[in-house]
Amino acid sequence: MGIDKPDVRFVIHHTMSKSVENYYQESGRAGRDDLPADCIVYFGFADIFRISTMVVMENAGYQKLLQMVAYCQNVDRCRRSLMAVHFDEVWDNERCNQMCDTCCYTSVDITQHARQVVLIVEQAGSMNEKVTPLKLVETWMGRGPAKLRKMIQTTALSRLQAESVIVSLLLQGYLREDYSFTPYTTYFYMKLGRKAPLLKEKTHTINMNMWPAGDGPSVVSVYK
């Protein structure tokens, strides 16, 4: 990028970076004069799967992308702390000063939501249907293919909350990625992950910090 201007007040990403390392370098352009600056990431559900098809063939590209997704999806740990841990740095929590956006979210039980999502993927597999992330969201919200929709319980969550739950299940291993390659493009599909069978146990629970109703994982803010 080659930008070394000390008084940059904003660095705004219109989508997430491909890795935490990339984001660290890009956001580091802000506040080099030691005055307050804002680093903002706008991102959406579809960005994850679009970028994944670009990096899947790179060495550790998908793993690095998931680290960036986890950073954006996080709503319970200071973002500066996450960045420090990623680079094996010692972090003093007193230095945080609540300068990021992760202080106002609460933990909720998403176990029933997870079971609904896993059931959709399970039913699709039994019918030899491939499920894209978009089709999964649409079906769960009652707008997908009729043959899938009539067999599952639709969600009352907002779309952004539903997308957040699905991303969380992917990051935690209840869902996994499956790629289909053609000479012209790469497709991303959802399949059951290694932890999906745990949801059949009545005592198994999943919690996540969720955005308030009507909001979702679309903006990440860090104030420097």
Automatic annotation (TrEMBL):
Q: Which Gene3D superfamilies match?
A: P-loop containing nucleotide triphosphate hydrolases, Winged helix-like DNA-binding domain superfamily/Winged helix DNA-binding domain
Gene Ontology biological process terms from the UniProt entry:
DNA replication; double-strand break repair via homologous recombination
EC numbers on record: 5.6.2.4
GO cellular component term of the entry, any: cytoplasm
Q: Where does the record place the Helicase C-terminal domain? A: 1-83
The catalytic activity, as recorded, is: Couples ATP hydrolysis with the unwinding of duplex DNA by translocating in the 3'-5' direction
Q: Which GO terms describe its molecular function?
A: 3'-5' DNA helicase activity; DNA binding; four-way junction helicase activity
UniProt keyword annotation of DNA-binding present = yes
- Recite the UniProt keywords alphabetically: DNA-binding, Isomerase
Stored InterPro entries: Helicase_C-like, P-loop_NTPase, RecQ_Zn-bd, RQC_domain, WH-like_DNA-bd_sf
Write down what this protein is called: DNA 3'-5' helicase
Organism ancestry: Eukaryota, Metazoa, Chordata, Craniata, Vertebrata
